[in-house]
Amino acid sequence: MRKMEVLGITMQDLTLRESMKKVEQFLKERKVCTIALITMKGLIIAQDSPAIKDWMSSLDMTVPIDADILRAADIHHHSRINDVEDDAFIVEFLKKMVRQKKTI
């Protein structure tokens, strides 16, 4: 895991494996955790809104769903960009919820 900053907003850069481990940890802890799927449009809006920027910073986990976010953060790893473009986190997250019969 490393931090990335785009348009003045700091987020975590987690690989798919790291993201799923974090989700598993959230489920084991049995507490309410916030995971947000972040778009470039959302970052642009947050750039001009301190309230939204603070909210994004307070999230337990942020998942970029726009490959442009990674590029803007100067992350050019082919596998990371493919994961984002293929919605790999969403697919794996939903599979995990179905397998474990969890509700969200």
Q: What is this structure's SSE topology?
A:
Elements: E1 2-6, E2 9-13, H1 16-29, E3 35-38, H2 40-47, H3 50-58, E4 61-64, H4 67-72, H5 78-85, H6 88-99
Parallel strand pairs: 3-4
Antiparallel strand pairs: 1-2
Helix pairs in contact: 1-6, 2-3
Describe this structure in words.
The protein is an alpha+beta fold and 104 residues long. It has six helices and four strands; from the N terminus they run E-E-H-E-H-H-E-H-H-H. It has helices spanning 16-29, 40-47, 50-58, 67-72, 78-85, 88-99, and strands at residues 2-6, 9-13, 35-38, 61-64. It has a two-stranded antiparallel sheet. A two-stranded parallel ribbon has the order 3-4. A hairpin with a 2-residue loop joins strand 1 and strand 2. Helix 1 packs parallel to helix 6 (88-99) and helix 2 packs across helix 3. The chain is globular. The model has no long low-confidence stretch (mean pLDDT 87).
